[in-house]
Sequence to fold (639 residues):
Amino acid sequence: MEGQSVEELLAKAEQDEAEKLRRITVHKELELEFDLGNLLASDRNPPPTGLRGAGSAPEAGLRALARDNTQLLINELWKLPTERVGEALVARLPEPTTRLPREKPVPRPRPLTRWQQFARLKGIRPKKKTNLAWDEVSGQWRRRWGYQRARDNTKEWLIEVPGNADPLEDQFAKRMQAKKERVAKNELNRLRNLARAHKMQLPSAAGMHPTGHQSKEELGRAMQVAKVSTASVGRFQERLPKEKAPRGSGKKRKFQPLFGDFAAEKKNQLELLRVMNSKKPQLDVTRATNKQMREEDQEEAAKRRKMSQKGKKKGGRQGPGGKRRGGPPSQGRKRKGGLGGKMNSGPPGLGGKRKGGQRQGGKRRK
Amino acid sequence: MLIKGGNANATVTEVLKDMYALKKPHGVLYKKKNITRPFEDQTSLEFFSKKSDCSLFLFGSHNKKRPNNLVIGRLYDYHVLDMIELGIEKFVSLKDIKNSKCPEGTKPMLIFAGDDFDVTEDYRRLKSILIDFFRGPTVSNIRLAGLEYVLHFTALGGKIYFRSYKLLLKKSGCRTPRIELEEIGPALDLVLRRTHLASDDLYKLSMKVPKALKSKKKKNISHDTFGTTYGRIHMQKQDLSKLQTRKMKGLKKRPAEKTTEDLEEKAKKIKKN
Fold:
């Protein structure tokens, strides 16, 4: 008898459980698709026939359908991991999976910094360094920088006074000062790069350099700018007794007067016509060779970059040979172009073409 | 932004007001009527979007040929991406249904029913626009008790039924509650009219995901064909003799045994020598 009652009890318990579950389970032919990040559920099942037949007043049918779908969505949501924040039970939502179009276009990639441009041009790539460095003092492997780094010169308790330094100078203070200057310079460069990226006006801080070491020209320029930044654009600013007038502060372009020197004008026009008529091109040797060398450097750097990318993708190892390819030949060249004969890699038509045209030797800025 | 056309009638105005109530505080309802036709001339829409910095819009108008017209659309980079014209057949406003409403700003749950929503391109875009329009701000956590609002879209017999319900959570014996719904909020019966969908390449451009947002692959985790997940741990070389294993106190060497062992070893050595 007892056995029977136990069985009965078990059966009853099972029935109760089934009842409870039945209250929240919904039967659907096709599973719904859930996007919990957006609290979204999509029901692909064709609408039940009762609904289609109803036509004019489908409210009850719609409501039943809505209830079923919502129940399924809530079931899914309740399965998410929860935590207690304050007094409320909070569920952690996953990322939304529905892909929706953006509102604004993707931001453009940042322009390269000055160093990155230079490194790209020359084909310089960062040297891969090991994570740990051997520290003699502590006799163990330590990280390269950061907390408890390998060669930490801030922790030194003894600094030798170098031979040429003032014996009464504080070397520790000197070291700290140098560090501060380096940090400030770094910060300035970073801000300059940022401003270049955003093409904003730098708050120039009146042209002063944060470390205080500036060249004479920079200081002169800063002073000029400061002089002109008054309400009357510097007209009533006095000059010091021995101060010279600023160099290079005139107009940047000089235009000839409309009519004046007729002879000079005639000469210029005839020269122009002659150059236009001549069949042979006028060539400036220096500029041409420099341009050529720059282009070659760029090509080599681009090639090296492509090789390294391909190497990374395929998993093959290029080896150090790949890097060195462009190295030695470019070192042997001189930047200033001389006669065409020296440059055997330049185009063959270069030599001897020093006619007419403007030939400006000396330093060139590209 | 919610814009009224040159000839918006009472129904359309009511609809726009209700939608504005749903989308507070992120919506902008323009009070004056604007005489424009979105399908012919999109410049005024783009101008409005630039001024108010909104990319989703709802434009209501009414004329004899298209009664109770509602144009729902979105913009990409202040240019019109998609526009879909819907006709309102039946409308029950928030005011008409008299019961307690949800607080504004709650993130609604969206449910789309009916296989029509995946069959045609028009319907798919409509679904995408509706999701964009009605989903709230993206959040990472949500309070389970705060899920109160459900918007249900059914595509049935060429019409789209839009209903909004309030959620009542009832006890169900186990952890997950049983749902009961109470109708609140606007109810619309919509008919699809004209569409102006974006060209494929513009759509592709707008769907571009920047590299930073793409999900990164987790290293050292691989999956089996059977669904088992394998992980890899990298360790340094271990000195197995110093490994910490279970200590059985019974097998520990006692001092008496130790001395006998030593004696034995010594004896062995002597013997060998």
Chain A touches chain B through 55 residues (CB under 8 Å). Residues 316-366 of chain A have pLDDT under 50 and may be disordered. The longest helix of chain A spans residues 285-314.
